[in-house]
Amino acid sequence: MGRDFDALVAEADAEPTHGWDFSWLEGRATEQRPSWGYQRTMAGYMARASAALDIQTGGGEVLAGIPERPPLTAATESWPPNIAEATRLLHPLGVVVVADEDEPPLPFADGAFDLVVSRHPVTVWWEEIARVLAPGGTYLSQQVGPASVFEVVEFFLGPQPGEARASRHPDQAREGARAAGLEVTDLRMERLRTEFFDVGAVVYFLRKVVWMVPGFTVEAYRDRLRDMHEHIEREGSFRATTTRFLIEARKPR
């Protein structure tokens, strides 16, 4: 068991984590997808838009995967490895990638876009979204909901306070959108099943999604990782609950 543990952890610790592609986890972890199908939904809106902005595009994988984009499409990203990856992926598709620090203001004029999208944004600057939307324009976003994958978080960090569990609630998104003058036209949340089938998958996930266990390193959490490995060996997997919500908001004409 010790040799398997060390090999799994070492492999996952050496794997590059740039971009927002989780294909390395295929066969090692599963995450149930929301019923609304974000990429499919976004593709429908993109096909009808004339100018679109994808905020916090990551490595550009989601935007690159839709069949038709508006003639004017831009994407922002703040993390240098992702900026390079998104540029490589999106420039051949005619999408301009803008390096942005994810702090107001967005580097675009008022009313520049009739569609703004964002998948799993770390922060949402509602006033800026409202500013760059044209009258009648739409904001569409899939976001991480409250206490998402907290079974993993609490395995490493212990019980979390109530305010941590309540953050990122869809009601907060509704209030933020309305305060910025947007009309919320759709808001729904789902609780979904996530499973990790080996400890290497957990290591890779925590190295990539760095805000789950801040400061995570293999050496700092080796003892707890060994406990996780033994749990997975005994139970067959480590199960957690992912929360996702979809919000659509429109700027009045």
Automatic annotation (TrEMBL):
Keywords: Methyltransferase, Transferase. GO terms for molecular function: S-adenosylmethionine-dependent methyltransferase activity. InterPro entries: 23S_rRNA_MeTrnsfrase_RlmA, Methyltransf_11, SAM-dependent_MTases_sf. The keyword Transmembrane helix does not apply. The keyword Methyltransferase applies. Residues 53-139 form the Methyltransferase type domain. Pfam families: Methyltransf_11. GO terms for biological process: methylation. Gene3D superfamilies: Vaccinia Virus protein VP39. This is Methyltransferase type 11.
